[in-house]
Structure formats: C-alpha cells, structure tokens
Amino acid sequence: MSRSKKLRFNAFNMMAPSHNWAGLWSHPRDASLDYNSLDYWVDYARTAERGLFDGIFLADVFGVYDVYGNSPETALTHAVQLPNAEPTLLVSAMALVTKHLGFGITSNLIYENPYQLARRFSTLDHLTSGRIGWNVVTGYLDSGARGMGLDANRAHDERYEAAEDFLAASYKLWEGSWEDGAVRRDRKAGIFTDPTKIHPVQHEGSHYRVNGIHLAEPSPQRTPLLYQAGTSKRGRAFAARHAEAIFLNGQTKPILARAVSDIRAAAKEFGRDPYDIRLFAGATVIVAPTRAEADDLLAEYAEYVDQTGQLALLSGWTGIDFSTYRPDQAVQYVESNAIQSMVENFTLRSDRPVKVGDLATLSHAGARSPFVVGSPQDVADELVAWADETDVDGFNLFRLVVPESLNAFVDLVVPELQSRGAYKAAYSEGTLREKLFPGRGPRLHDTHPGAAYRHPAPDTGRPEAAE
Fold first, then answer.
1. 461 occurs within a structural domain
2. Residue 142 and residue 63: Cα distance in Å, rounded?
3. At residue 355, what are phi and psi to the nearest 5 degrees?
4. Are strands 191-193 and 201-204 parallel, antiparallel or unpaired?
C-alpha cells in the first residue's frame, strides 16, 4: 500500500571511534578506527547518498565523559566518544563527492561568538551549494566548561537563554546585514559590492555582543537549516520556536508520541505551523536477508558492546554516576544539569522500572529509542508503524558496525520501503531546506522568527530587527 507521507533518514555518526554504542569499534569488521581519515568519510557519504538519505548528521560533544566514577579513565580506556575531532572540517570533502546529501553539523554555541560562527556556516553553505545545517546545542558536560577555563557549565535553563541571545545575533548577521542584490560582481564597473546595501549589525544582548558587518556574502540558504534536540520543558520551547528539524528519543511509542505531540503543540503556540518542523527519532536498526540472520547479527554485535563504556556514556548524558548503582537497581529520577529529557524517559515516563544493567546492553531495553531487528520486510513494517503511531517524519540511524550496517540498510531496507511507496525514488533539486520542505524556497519560512531580521523586514507585523 502506498503512503502519501514518505519516510526520511539521516545517517547518525560522530568523528570518533565510538558513538552511541560503546565498544563496537573493536568489532573485526568495523572501520571506525579510521574515523580520522578522509577515505572513511567520503565512502560513508557516498553510501548515504546512494540510499537517498536526507543527510549525514554529525554529532559532537565538547568535553570528556568523566561523571562515571568521577574520572575520565573509563572514557579514555574504552574510547567513549573520546578521542573526538572537529566535524565541520569533514564537510567539504564529503560535499565534493555528493550532489544532494545534506550535512547537519553539531556546534556548541556556549563557547563561540555569533560573529565567527555565522561566517563559518555561511562558508559551509556556499561550499555545499546550500546543503548545510546547524544542530544548535548548548553542551551538557562540566568537563567542557572546565576545559574552557570555567568552573562548571551554566545551569540548564540559563544555557537556553544564552542560546536565544546567540540566535538573535546570528539572524541579524545572516538575514539582515547584506541585502539581496548587494553583491554585484560587476567587472566592467569595478564594483563587487554595493555599500549602500550593507548594514552593520549592532547587537547588545544579555550574553553576546556584536558590532560589525557580516564577513561572508549571503549564501544559498543564508541561515543554515536549524536542527535541535531539546525535549525538556525549556528545551522544547526553544526547539519549537527556532528549529526546522528536531531529533527525539523515546524507548516506547507512547513516550515518543507524547514528545512529538508536545513539540507540535508548542510550535503552534509560537505561531508556526506544527508541520513546519521535521521530526526525526533516533533508531538502531539491524537488518539481514532473513530474521534469523538478523538475530545472529544482533547476538554477534552484542558481544562487542562495552557495558562499562555504555554506562559511562549514560552517566555523561544524564549527569548520574551509574558506577554507584547495582546492575539490578532501577534508575531513579533526579534533577539534572545534563540531558533532562533522558532522565525523565527512564523514570517518570517509563511504564516499568528501567534497570541500570539493562541500559548497558545492545537490546530493546538498552536502547533510548526504536530498536528494530529483522528482515527487510520486518524492518520496513516496524519503521512505518513507529512513524504512523508517533507522527515522526523519519529516523536518525545510529551507527553500528561501519560500513556493513549502513550498506545493509541501503541495500535491503531502502528498496523494500520504495516498493511500498514509503520512501522516495529520487532526490528533488534544491538546497537542504528545499528538500525537507518542497516548494518553500531556500530561505527561512516567513513564520520563522529569523525571518523578522531581514532587511527590509517582511510585513509580518513584527518590528524591523536588523539594526
């Protein structure tokens, strides 16, 4: 049966030997030891584009996972997202060997200035012909703050206040500093830019100050496509106001469906169409030609997941030191300055106690999101069911064994979804924003708060904000 709403996929990875499932770098067929080589990423990008993925989403973390046992020893020993490298530097190489694939880059704004970050993303948007997105994050590790010379990370809600200020300054740079038509490139007249159409940005915010002209000329999208992953109460409000794509987790369909419903309702409160945001759920998928073969793969992969490393990851994500828990002990709700929504999913929103030992295994119990194992038909059934029952638009596929897991999905699941009319048969033309929102054009939608900063501002009833 054909579906009118096509599923969307991102390949979810990180420039590190280990990502969401600790220890899989040690699998004999895994290539993640080459995470710091261009060949690894170029091949990965080609595979994702062969599968018609919307993009590669590159996670990043600023700091070290040292909550577990109050020490970085476990993270260092087991490569728990450490070492990690700067993801923005990968994009040009991947863009060169692809034509349509988007690139979502995680960048922590807390230790940046809008003036420099805005130029970096404008440059990437130019070099990719409008295929760049920014995953707006504020960080959650105190170790990152200490590395930047601070005593500790800012409080959870204060980080989002800083993010609001940062984005206001960035919108002014991207949308308001250079008018349309400011760049003339007139060789005969010897005029490259019309100075009368350039406007200095003066921003005096609570956390950031900017006084200057945006250094980069307008890129195809101007503002990069904006990703976010906030689902705590404060994070949800921020995401619903600013994000164009949001990444969600939820280990059961009711938990995920509630998160989706809350986001869409919050977007409506901000005057946005609830479906102006594309929602992606994290997903672990293990697929093989038959269900029995997929079960065998699961058992094989599970042997290489490092349970101590997995708990170190979870400790960093939640702010809870799981080295003090017994394996049979249930996770208890505590106020956290880390990822609050994850703690809530394990406790307040779960329909049964979640045991610490289970969280350290490659399994449904250990997953924070959909966990799908089976034949191509089984996987397609499950992904369609999750989308239909939760109202997500698509999935971020967690990295498992590289490259075989991604190859298997592209070779086995994609054709099955296409045969059902549940997945596109070809890319559409245009920028990343145009691919996610067909017919909208490359710029921010007029209902997005960033559109108010254009010069001159569109007639939306909101004040001109470029100066």
1. no
2. 7
3. -85, 145
4. unpaired
CA atoms of 217 and 43, how far apart (whole Å): 31
Q: State which amino acid sits at residue 96.
A: L
With H, G, I as helix, E, B as strand and everything else as coil, classify residue 244.
coil
Task: Supply 22's token pair.
Answer: 């600790």
Instruction: Give pLDDT, residue 351.
Output: 61
**Residue 408 to residues 47, 351, 353, 383, Cα–Cα distance (Å):** 10, 33, 34, 15
- Which domain covers residue 366, as residue numbers? 8-453
CA-nearest of 89, 9, 6 to 41 is: 89
- Length of the chain (residues): 467
The reply to whether 460 falls in a domain is no
Q: State yes or no: pLDDT of 155 exceeds 90.
A: no
In a domain, 118, yes or no: yes
The SS3 call for residue 395 is strand
Q: How far apart are CA 410 and CA 35, in angstroms?
A: 21
What type of residue sits at position 279?
Answer: L
Token output for 159: 């980080």
**Residues of the chain by 3-state class (helix, strand, coil), percent to 5:** 40, 15, 45
Q: Indicate whether 181 belongs to any domain.
A: yes
Query: How much is the average pLDDT of 71-77?
Result: 94
H/E segment holding residue 248: strand 245-248
Contact call for residues 82 and 36 (beta carbons, < 8 A): no
Given a cut of 90, whether residue 3 has pLDDT beyond it is no
CATH number at residue 36: 3.20.20.30
> Three-class SS of residue 336?
coil
Domain count of the fold of the chain? 1
Q: What is the pLDDT of residues 326-345, one digit of tens each?
A: 888 877 766 665 555 666 66
Q: Are strands 132-137 and 55-59 parallel, antiparallel or unpaired?
A: unpaired
Single-letter code of the amino acid located at 218: P
CA 72 – CA 197 distance, rounded (Å): 51
For residue range 26-35, list pLDDT tens digits in order: 999 999 999 9
